[in-house]
Amino acid sequence: MVNRLIQTLTADKVSTRPSDLEAHGRDEGYPETALPEAVVFAESPEDVSRTLRLAREHGYAVIPFGAGTSIEGALVPVKPTISLDLGRMNRILEVRPGDFLAVVEAGVTRKQLNERLRHEGLFFPVDPGADASLGGMAATNASGTTTVRYGGMRRNVLALEAVMADGEVVRFGRPVQKSSSGYDLKDLLIGSEGTLAVITKLWLRLSPLPAEVHTVRVYFEDVGAAAEGAFALMGAGLPVARLELVDERAIAAVNRHLGRNYPERPMLLVEFHSSTPEAVQAESAFAEELLREAGATGFDAARTAEERTAQWEARHQAYWALVHTFPGRHYMITDTAVPLSEMPGMVRYAQELMDELGLEGNILGHVGDGNFHTIVAARPGDEYARAEAFSARLVERALELGGTATGEHGVGLRKRKYMAREHGPALAWMRRIKAALDPEGVLNPGKVLPDTEAG
Amino acid sequence: MVNRLIQTLTADKVSTRPSDLEAHGRDEGYPETALPEAVVFAESPEDVSRTLRLAREHGYAVIPFGAGTSIEGALVPVKPTISLDLGRMNRILEVRPGDFLAVVEAGVTRKQLNERLRHEGLFFPVDPGADASLGGMAATNASGTTTVRYGGMRRNVLALEAVMADGEVVRFGRPVQKSSSGYDLKDLLIGSEGTLAVITKLWLRLSPLPAEVHTVRVYFEDVGAAAEGAFALMGAGLPVARLELVDERAIAAVNRHLGRNYPERPMLLVEFHSSTPEAVQAESAFAEELLREAGATGFDAARTAEERTAQWEARHQAYWALVHTFPGRHYMITDTAVPLSEMPGMVRYAQELMDELGLEGNILGHVGDGNFHTIVAARPGDEYARAEAFSARLVERALELGGTATGEHGVGLRKRKYMAREHGPALAWMRRIKAALDPEGVLNPGKVLPDTEAG
């Protein structure tokens, strides 16, 4: 198989070097790893096509690989696999400011794109923290700190090009703000984690850089009160651009890791993006009033762009701060989302349960969307088993409340066991879709859908 | 078949009265009609299920019918058909203000829901003009005047219950603000025009009624200049809530039809929804400045809520005003959407082409989305053939520019002929989806997908 790949694609696009295999047999969050047979570094949709055809012919699986920043096991092989790395397909093909449109290859990362857009007064708003590839972000339906205002990948990907399991290169959707033409396969592929097609190109909706930005840290007595504050803001219909909760333990870890001196108290990070100074002042003053009523005990506004950037860097480094605080452990990030009114109770439940189970970790996340994470650092063995039990109980509670096992990280291998419970009879219809688009099961087998209905 | 339906569902749910058949064999915009064999007035998902099973057994087609307000022929039978009317399933099952959530049966109309929500300080924003059923709006992926700010049905339907072709009742999606769990069949069913499933229940995302609303009519010398003005506003990233173009002919027709005295000039209808008085003032002052630079010659702000309501009623009555101006004709509404920068040129092209072909009609629409309509009133025969040629040329131009044949009205029968050109190889994958979900072709056959690749 490797020889056939080299013959077809040339040797510089195919690697079996141990370091390459090792880097492509894991992700950033799943504890298990498994080596692929080879890594293909695709440079075009045709390379993707050829790889899929060969893999099908030889009975191999293909796992598309972007920047490797996913965390639920979507990248880990479960049978003989060719890892299909799209990192070389990293050209920004077109930027059309008047249409708020960028056309990019799948391997372009979000920071690379935003760097290019800076001088156009535009940005691509989806912000999962990691410098993920845009193809990977589409494949996992990524979202993040700005989703409460700008939406996630479905809203911000207008169209995409994908290579189907049989090797055909197909475009889904049109680069316009809206369309009601035909079946929405674009949104079906988004979030399918490489199990229905390999995304190779994206037409992205850009947003104007906000004229006015106001960022403030808001302190609370406890993490539940902070969640209540977030709920109060959402209820007032204020156009918050970011609304993040960070608990005192995450702040303490960040202070140590990055040498900061933020007050070590539960806080909300709130940001407004407005079109005029008057609007941003009025909105943030109203927000402050609501937050005070909800129990906020203090406010620190970012006074400069540097301070703002530093604050969001701190938020995004919370995971790595935990890793540095507790090195050599397994790290598990929970990702439930619940209806907004249930979110404060859910945050309190998570905190109590973490203490009850004697686990070390943080709570933080996108509370404006009802989605938050706990990050647990557990020693392999018993403690990791407790962390898994913790995750399972959060998911069960979320599902009881009408919520979801995964707000934004996807299913991968880790969340498959909840799919039957979350989706009920819909799961069988998802299997029909998989069978219709990838009848031979070439594309990332064993992911998203559980092997049996029992999970 | 009718007897079996009556046996299974009871006689009060099944009608073969000529008036019922006639009302269910047509829509509000497609010139051809055809009678169904019977109309079933379903009162539950089980009724829908039983109807689908019987129809399949007897080789009948089933066409789901909401409020009958669609316009592209989606409701017109092309083979022996049971029309499945969901109008009796009109209960608002739950409103949860804290979760910004309403749960409704598919036959609830948008006005019915908004009336119920008025006292909660919430509304359901998708506004196609007609008082459509929410199930029908989901089935056709409806959008409208507020989509530029609030999105269309995909963004505002969180989850739905549908009856599949084999009669199974299935829920797709979860009532949370976001989820990355499993394949997105919810969005696949939205916009599938009753060809993949019958939507019976919806979990809807509600929005807070804006604290501050500012509505203004902005006048221009010609319709192209008005379109340029809209483009200038969009480019500045102002958070417009509505941005509609109406040409001078539409205004004249509305003045006659509703007894109004709006200046008969091309205009933009612009609305801001803001959280504070200062914000709405700042945003609208900035907008006025941009519009003046873009050539606006006058502004009339709505001074009262009544004046604002009257203005939007006028906008929504433009179609009926044309019907009253030219009674007894066939009316055709074009629905292209193009990238934003192409929109002014496209509007000018439509106006010139309408004049060149000697057609009578109006231009209006959702220019903030790059989507606009022309409404043509043509005498049956030669003139209607010219109207069809006009529509075809607009679609061709839109497709050349990267746009779509239908921004929001859907495909139905009328737009099938453009599907191969718009979607290319994706069309064959849409067929696979249809075959996977409705292998026997019970659900609204002959719609959306053309009979052959040539259309």
TrEMBL record, chains A, B:
One of its GO terms (molecular function) is D-lactate dehydrogenase (cytochrome) activity. GO terms for biological process: lactate catabolic process. Pfam families: FAD-oxidase_C, FAD_binding_4. The keyword Transmembrane does not apply. Its EC number is 1.1.2.4. InterPro entries: FAD-bd_oxidored_4_C, FAD-bd_PCMH, FAD-bd_PCMH-like_sf, FAD-bd_PCMH_sub2, FAD-linked_Oxase-like_C, Oxid_FAD_bind_N, Vanillyl_alc_oxidase_C-sub2. Its cofactor is FAD. It is an enzyme of class 1 (oxidoreductase). Coiled coil: none annotated. Residues 32-209 form the FAD-binding PCMH-type domain. Keywords: FAD, Flavoprotein, Oxidoreductase, Transit peptide. Belongs to the FAD-binding oxidoreductase/transferase type 4 family. PANTHER family: D-LACTATE DEHYDROGENASE, D-LACTATE DEHYDROGENASE, MITOCHONDRIAL-RELATED. This is D-lactate dehydrogenase (cytochrome).
